[in-house]
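Illustration: Membrane protease YdiL, CAAX protease family.
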Amino acid sequence: MAEQKSGPVDAAGIPAPDEARGSAAPSVPLPGTAPLSPRLLAGEIACVLALSLGAAAVSATISFVGSLTAPAALSQQTASLVGSQAAADRPWLDLSRQLYSLAFSMAPVALVVYLLHRTRESARPIGFDLRRPGFDLAAGAGLAALIGLGGLAVYLVSWRLGLTVTVEPSALNGHWWQTPVLVLQAVKNGVLEEVIVVGYLMLRLGQLGWSPLRAALAGSVLRAFYHLYQGLGMFLGNLVMGLVFCWVFRRWGRVMPLVVAHSLIDIVAFIGSVYLIGNVSWLPGG
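Result:
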């Protein structure tokens, strides 16, 4: 009988796996090469929102209930959009915490971009890129002027009707770094909200078979709810803003003009409040 050749064995005399004998390992398909099932898509959406603006909507609702049940009227209560995170005599600690908060609040956006790349889509289908900077800046500036003026009118009217709290955009104690931090906060808001609530959500809900109108309504209602802590007036104002932004996204196919518009609106609101509140009679909070 011919002698049989044995393969490598380990110290216990047990034959080694095929990989150790030089045979090729079975190929493993790369993750994300196949379309996600509706169940996985729904789970992905739920996870993204739970880590970002869905959680913010729940928090805002709780805050609004607290405001409604407080002894003071809504217009006599204050909501600070960018608050101090340390005592006034510790500006460097406050700045460190502000920058930390800014950096890690962008994690959901990074997650969304990763998930889109994982399914071989990238961020280009939602227009979150720098391919058309001129168009994005011009269109965003025009949209900011339209929405910003309308939003200011809604705020002033609803505040006088007692439907909105007094919004204090900045409470950073006038530190030297106040302006750059407010600008960064505004840009963060623009990127976080428009990428997730418009670009990502419209794309994923469309992949689930939702109509554009249904997806736009869902995203706009979500936007309204995470602004509910400001009162009913701003709830309705942000609902309308969301519908307009979703319509613009469907028309242009790009989320970057919305990011620019939202960032500009918040920059004007944040910086303007620093110099105007207390110096003009028509703006609440003075």
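Reading the tokens back as a structure: DSSP finds nine helices and two strands in the chain.
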